Amino acid sequence: MLLVRGTHDLIHKSAQVHRYITEYARTWAHKYGFTDVSTPILEYEGIFSRSLGETSDIIRKEMFVLEQKGDDPHKESIILRPEGTAPIMRALFMNGLHQTLPQKFFYEGPMFRYDRPQKGRQRQFHQFGIELLGIKSSWAEIDVISLSFDILKGLGISNLTLEINTLGDKESREAYKSALVDYFQDVKECLSLESQERLLKNPLRILDSKSAQDRKLIEDAPVYRNYLNTFSENYFETLLKNLNHLDIPFKINPHLVRGLDYYSHTVFEITTPDLGTQSTLLAGGRYDSLSTLMGNSTDIPAVGWAAGIERLALLLEDKLSLPNPRQFALIPLSEEQDREAFSWTQKLRQEGLIVHFVSDGKIAQKFKAAAKLGAQYGLVLGDEESKTKTFTLKNFETGDQQQISQNALSTTLKSL
RNA sequence: GCGGGCGUAGCUCAGGUGGUUAGAGCGCCAGAUUGUGGCUCUGGAGGCCGUGGGUUCAAGACCCAUCGCUCGCCCCA
Fold it and tell me: Which nucleotides of strand B come closer than 7 angstroms to any CB of the protein?
């Protein structure tokens, strides 16, 4: 038996933790007024290649392409979605929602990237994220960043850093790009091979390089802040001032560039030192030009972020105490009691109790199974109980037993 | 895609320089206990030693390849 590389089963505790994280995030998103949206896992490749940029690693080497069966009317490849933002933008247009802005969406689900697996990095992983569409001011950023902290802190994650930077608008970016190219062109031979390639395709990404030789050169490279036009500069300043005013701590990281093409102005990440090399828990920013990249005639203001559920789970799995509701096991002692016991089981389930029905094996095996299934209490129904219209209620933790009348069954159980 | 470490029972791991039928603890199953799980005792099942090839009289161990996990690089959530 083989497990597809980079995938995992979620069983018992890991499934519960995963679900708990998602539900917790959803609850907060609802308080902020975001509503659920769910888009297909399958999309045409163009949705992503147009929006993420042909030079991004996700497009160049990490896509899961499906084998075409022949009945699809389009020749374009179908892929497993690698991220959530582009599909939501697609859905916005296809459902005509861009005419009724603003829109606020929360999503959650599996994403797929053909990457080399590592701790905190799977080929099938799960994200939840939010998209706030149609708000121009930087209060949109404030709103979504606040939401992200409410979720992460509420989950009990500490040791968080908000790193933030601005990519400016198109005009600023073009000005900065040409300054960067001028600077690096002169020292091209000293750059790593990867960065030499970036110089041609996506010079901003050189700033993100971790190679030691690049880092030295990057230190002396032109600083973006000096190339921002007035609008971009003011936009960023206002955002930072408001973050300060709200006591949201942040760290400006001028090297935070992001791999995806659709960002403009604000980019941010929330990182933790507790996960080794996969330190980003949540990342996002503003992507006003995504809508035009996807074919719309005008920009639609948009901010959002996505968080990696597996990474949060790694931080939480050991310390999260999940709710542990009462569970009962109905134990008929012989086959004569099976039917009666099962209808009692159903009755109690309808009353809202969690009830296991245990009928396999010998009596000792039934008790063993009941305890293993997680029941804290056993309800024994044998000949004597049947005659006297009672159950024997056994507390598995203390071993105590008592007789309770069938009439008072559900009220007794609920009062435990 | 690149570099390092590691693959032995369901789990955690022992198995010096190659030497008969591969071990422990936990877990699992059964019995002691025919109306009672956990504790105890007794017994039992469970391994192509990741996979394929090579060296050797002889390989879990050595060599090569491959797959997987893992740490780092890269990238990102």
Answer: 1-2, 28-31, 33-38, 67-77
ipTM of this predicted structure: 0.82
Q: Which nucleotide is nearest to A194 (CA to C1')?
A: B74
Could you give all domains of chain A from N- to C-terminal order, each with its CATH number? 13-169+229-316 (3.30.930.10), 327-414 (3.40.50.800)
- CA→C1' distance for A27 and B38 (Å): 39
- Any idea which nucleotide's C1' is nearest the CA of A205? B75
With CA of A62 and C1' of each nucleotide, the nearest comes out as: B75
Q: Are A348 and A409 in contact (CB under 8 A)?
A: yes
- Give residue A259's pLDDT band: very low, low, confident or very high (50, 70, 90): low
For nucleotide B68, the protein residue with its alpha carbon nearest to C1' is A5
Specify the DSSP class assigned to residue A40: -
Quick: pLDDT tens for A100-149: 999 999 999 999 998 888 888 889 999 999 999 999 999 999 999 999 99
DSSP A152-180: HHHTT--S-EEEEEE---HHHHHHHHHHH
Nearest CA to A55 out of A324, A260, A297 is that of A260
In chain A, the N- to C-terminal Cα span, in Å, equals: 45
